[in-house]
Amino acid sequence: MNAMVVVEQSRWRDGFEQRALARYRAAGCSEPLALALLERALKGSEDWTVATDGTGWIAVGIRDDDGTPVGRIHELTVEQGRAWAERWCAEQGARRVEVRLTGGPGQFAGYPVRGQTRMRAAAEHPGLPPGLTVRRLTEQEYPAWYAAETAAYVADIVRAGALTPEQARQKSDQDFERYLPQGYLTPGHAIYAFEADGEVVGTGWVNHAFLPGVTFGFSLEVHPEHRGKGYGRAAMAVGEWATRQGGDDVMMFNVFGGNEVAMKLYDATGFAVLDELRSVDLP
């Protein structure tokens, strides 16, 4: 395939914005949320390389992952254009190439899924399941919760096949510092414990107003000894309840690739896939 890199990107950019917005709207996003997602998708676009073969567009870039170049395919509307994009990434020194997709895998069906963003409108008046109570996690409980959460996060990243254990630990440290800079007292964040028969069976960590109208669920965790008892669905109900408590109407969260049990639960409870992160190692 012959493609030519373009210097003047305004025509591509206008089309990219319209195509991206159409995908977000089709996924059920409100207009303010679609615009916020577009702004996030365009971050760093001034450094992307854009090419065309006359029939469509290829937009690619490189990001630094702790000193390792990682290729990112930001858009691909050229039929059979994946090889060109991968070759470009390899020529820039990338060891891995990744893509975030809304609306299906298309040419990237062979790329393993590393993670998904799921979302659903919360029930207007969500109720908690019978026998379940919810309270805020106490500051005394926070250190043990934090240790368990970081360990689980590292395990999830490694299971998804995205990073090595050491890289996963570094990412965990960076992400928790980013999202909980003031720990237990970080504004906009709430950590809940849910109990049954007077015993804590799980926890939830949410960030209200993460995006317009969106509460983001960083973690909805049922403790291992209580799994298989129906508390997974209960945790989702807690998430919806927390979303409305924070004044939002949409709940959103990520799930790592390889977690088939969780994905089946989210399918069953109506949390649709907004987008997927897929990646593959380059030769």
Total strands: 12
Beginning-to-end CA distance, first to last residue: 20 Å
Molecular shape: globular
Largest sheet: 12 strands, mixed
Q: Percent helix among the residues? A: 25-40%
What is the gyration radius calculated from CA atoms? 20 Å
Strand content: 25-35%
CATH-level-4 superfamily name of the largest domain:
Gcn5-related N-acetyltransferase (GNAT)
Count of discrete domains: 2
Helical/strand content category: alpha+beta
Could you name the ranges where pLDDT drops below 50 across 5 or more consecutive residues?
A: none
What is the string of helix and strand elements? EHHEEEHEEEHHEEEHEHE
CATH topology of the largest domain: Aminopeptidase
**What is the typical, i.e. mean, pLDDT?**
92
Strand order of the largest sheet: 1-2-3-4-5-12-6-11-10-9-8-7
- Tell me what the CATH architecture of the largest domain is: 3-Layer(aba) Sandwich
What is the CATH top level name of the largest domain? Alpha Beta
Question: Treating each run of at least 4 consecutive H or I residues as one helix, how many helices?
Answer: 7
